[in-house]
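Form 7-S
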Amino acid sequence: MAYDTSKNANETFDIIVVGGGPSGSTAAQKAAEGGARVLLLDRAGRIKPCGGAIPPRLIRDYAIPSHLIVARIDAARIVSPSGRLAHMPVDGSYVGMVDRADFDEYLRSRAAEAGATRATGTYSHSSRDSDGMLRIHYTLKDGSEASHRTRLAIGADGALSKLGKDHIAGSDRTNLVFAYHEIIEQPETTDTYSPARCDVYYNSRYSPDFYAWVFPHGKTASIGTGSAHKGFALREAVAHLRHDMHLDGTKTIRKEGAPIPLKPLKRWDNGRDVLLAGDAAGVVAPASGEGIYYAMLGGELAAETGLAFLKTGDARVLKQARKTFMRAHGVIFRILGMMQYFWYGHDKRLERFVTMCRDKDVQRLTWAAYTEKKMVRSNPLAHVRIFVKDVAHLLGIVAP
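Output:
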């Protein structure tokens, strides 16, 4: 049964989660499981442009059922600006692919099953009642307004989080990659497309400073690109890629675009009763643009922190969400950020980067780090070899 906003206008929640993507849904589920009275507010019909890749660790940690995995990827193919290829097999593991429309709705439904109340609407603004308690206002599909009181608001409303802008200084970011993709019917298997392989293209025609992709989604495929250059024609770039891949005649199912943050915000809370998670907090991996695992982890940490705040009433604990996340993943975010800075946007450097991707040590450690989401320390000599090779390529000592 739909939540009746007209009968519950003055209802008070422990936590209101703004945004029903993977981060917000996870936050709502975990908070409800922890005993909090939760409202999950989400806009209807919004699907974020996303390659849809999730690692095995996410599937294990968040008990993702097998029917949501629409494809299992066993390799990646990296294509340099000149067309040179690097094949990267996923030895001993795989990459799961999901369709965000089905995946996100499953997570929202699971949050409701855990006890969260779902409401459909768009956050408009917030205010404070005479007792100082936060009130979240939102607009319903018919244009009417609704609002509820809450002890804590978790903002999981994307890279341009309006809740964040309203409450947290410095959250009005400008360093964004703008992503656009088209979901198409599954192409035929050819030399240029495989239903078990992700293709990544480094080519200024497709993106001057990021990359373009063709990712299988079972019965469909995602073909897209991203760029931080606001004037870059993303739709035209995807059209070029589809033409070059002989996919321009394949049926298009839907088109989506959205900004993606480049790095975590320095502050995720307002020191009182607002906390950010997911893209709103900036937890998308630089260089790769991967965000689903980090979004769900951020949502879980927001819920854990929120429950601690509800129990103690001490707003200082809200800082713990960011501290815990950065302790676990701050190093890899910095490394990926440096990689993006040094390699991307320079065709000659990208030629060398693709050459590095052919290296077995690079492939082994890259996949181990991706699939398990932690720095791999089991083979220190491999790290030394990669560092030496990296420097050699940067300095041009070896041929691309």
